[in-house]
């Protein structure tokens, strides 16, 4: 059995959740006799290329597309599409496994349909929620958890709101609706106003692209139960859906560390992208409102160079209990976490299934997180961690204050943590998916 794994970037050139997941899966599958390689675009290059990463063959197909508005809006196909097709014909895989789509000059729905047209079985793993949500965060109007079903009117209003158009949205929304009802696609107009007026058309296209995607797939994999339900709500065929929970690339077989009773100060850490989306500012505001001697926070992560990190570094400069630690190598995450009492994750959007929670559980520490879908599926409030209403600094501060007053709650939560599964288990689950497809000739 030979599997081609397709995504937009790969290690070592880009290191993020999807790249690490794909690397770990390919390695784990190999141990049970399933061969695999990786295919990515060779951006800006007119020739194909190959390289080897940790024993994995990586094929880069030529992708010379000039990124312009027509490509971004999906009005034309990427130039590299024929080279992608030729590469699949050359590799002759049993299954093409897509891990992400990006549009523009990256992997698109059309790449999926090309693989399907070659009569190759197609699998898609959904790592992000953007395939059913134009804003990508599943937050209606930025302040309420969304049910996730694509609805042209509601999604259009929410998308306009997310673009920060303010008062303009009041007239853009009805005009966009009128143009959509008249069959006028203003996204073809070559300016920003045309795009804004074509919001309902964009949502309709999102719905159409999602349907096209799931129809082209032989199997669709969700990392979470909550997103599996959203896929069903949006019309994904039940017989194509598989739920394979998140795991860790490496799970230690060593004896768990001895639990030492928590004493003040409570030692917290944040691990992740230094970004407003990750809600670090909420955590910092809460810590700044609490007694300095009772709690401290160490912050690990890279910034987006947008001024956010610099602002909060300056704002917290006078607080000796807030320390900025820089980036943390992947292999050091779990050992470092074992030096702390609590991981804090204050996401302001519904992440699919944050790997950092699994890493914390592998380290044997509970998690305090915002109550959004991806966090709530892994955390039982008051059992293996705590949940607070997202974007609510007061509730977060109150929860931290309770832990300061009753640190034994952390000890109790640590005893309830179930260690995460490893990729050896995920590989067996995917073997079942692949085997089902290859034996099913319908």
What is the topological layout?
Elements: E1 2-6, H1 17-31, E2 35-43, E3 49-53, E4 56-63, H2 69-72, H3 81-91, E5 95-98, H4 109-117, E6 121-126, E7 139-140, E8 144-145, H5 152-162, H6 169-181, H7 192-197, H8 199-216, E9 219-222, H9 225-233, E10 241-243, E11 266-271, H10 280-288, E12 295-300, H11 308-315, E13 322-326, H12 333-337, E14 342-345, H13 355-363, E15 367-370, H14 373-376, E16 385-388, H15 393-405, H16 408-414, H17 423-439
Parallel strand pairs: 1-2, 1-5, 2-4, 5-6, 6-9, 9-10, 11-12, 11-14, 12-13, 14-15, 15-16
Antiparallel strand pairs: 3-4, 7-8
Describe this structure in words.
The strands form three sheets. An eight-stranded mixed β-sheet has the order 3-4-2-1-5-6-9-10, with helices on both faces. A six-stranded parallel β-sheet has the order 13-12-11-14-15-16, sandwiched between helices. The protein has a two-stranded antiparallel sheet with strand order 7-8. The model has no long low-confidence stretch (mean pLDDT about 90). The chain starts with a strand and ends with a helix. β9, α9 and β10 form a beta-alpha-beta unit. About 40% of the residues lie in helices and about 15% in strands. The protein has about 450 residues and is α/β, with parallel strands linked by helices. It has 17 helices and 16 strands. The chain has three domains: about 1-125 and about 215-250 and about 425-440, Glycogen Phosphorylase B (Rossmann fold, 3-Layer(aba) Sandwich); about 145-205, no CATH class; about 265-415, 3-Layer(aba) Sandwich (Rossmann fold).
């Amino acid at each position: 059995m030979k599997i081609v794994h397709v995504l937009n970037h790969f290690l070592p050139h880009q290191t993020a959740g999807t790249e690490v997941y794909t690397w770990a899966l390919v390695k784990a599958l190999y141990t049970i006799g399933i061969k695999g390689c990786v295919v990515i675009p060779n951006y800006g290059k007119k020739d194909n290329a190959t390289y080897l990463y940790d024993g994995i063959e990586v094929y880069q197909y030529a992708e010379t597309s000039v990124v312009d508005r027509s490509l971004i809006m999906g009005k034309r196909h990427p130039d590299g599409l024929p080279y992608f097709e030729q590469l699949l014909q050359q590799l002759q895989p049993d299954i093409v496994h897509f891990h992400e789509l990006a549009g523009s000059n990256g992997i698109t729905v059309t790449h999926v349909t090309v693989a399907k047209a070659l009569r190759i079985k197609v699998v898609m793993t959904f790592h992000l929620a953007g395939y059913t949500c134009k804003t990508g965060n599943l937050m209606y109007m930025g302040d309420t958890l969304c049910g996730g079903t694509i609805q042209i009117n509601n999604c259009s209003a929410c998308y306009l709101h997310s673009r920060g158009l303010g008062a303009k949205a009041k007239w853009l929304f009805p005009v966009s609706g009128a143009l959509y009802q008249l069959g006028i696609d203003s996204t073809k107009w070559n300016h920003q106003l045309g795009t804004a007026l074509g919001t309902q058309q964009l949502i309709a296209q999102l719905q159409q692209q999602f349907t096209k995607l799931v129809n082209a797939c032989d199997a669709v994999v969700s990392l979470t139960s909550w997103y599996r339900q959203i896929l069903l709500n949006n019309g994904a065929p039940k017989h194509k859906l598989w739920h394979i929970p998140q795991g860790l690339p490496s799970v230690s077989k060593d004896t768990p560390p001895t639990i030492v009773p928590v004493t003040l100060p409570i030692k917290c850490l944040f691990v992740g992208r230094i970004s407003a989306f990750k809600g670090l500012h909420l955590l910092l505001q809460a810590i700044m409102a609490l007694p300095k001697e009772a709690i401290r926070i160490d912050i690990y992560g890279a910034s987006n160079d947008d001024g956010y990190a610099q602002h909060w570094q300056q704002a917290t400069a006078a607080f000796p209990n807030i320390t900025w630690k820089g980036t943390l190598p992947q292999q050091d995450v779990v050992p470092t976490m074992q030096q702390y009492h609590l991981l804090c994750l204050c996401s302001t959007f519904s992440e699919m299934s944050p790997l950092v929670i699994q890493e914390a559980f592998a380290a044997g520490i509970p998690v305090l997180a915002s109550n959004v879908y991806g966090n709530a599926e892994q955390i039982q409030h008051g059992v293996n961690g705590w949940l607070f209403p997202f974007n609510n600094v007061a509730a977060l501060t109150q929860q931290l204050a309770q832990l300061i007053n009753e640190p034994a709650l952390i000890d109790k939560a640590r005893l309830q943590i179930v260690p995460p599964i490893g990729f050896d288990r995920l590989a067996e689950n995917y073997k079942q998916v692949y085997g089902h497809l290859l034996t099913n000739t319908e």
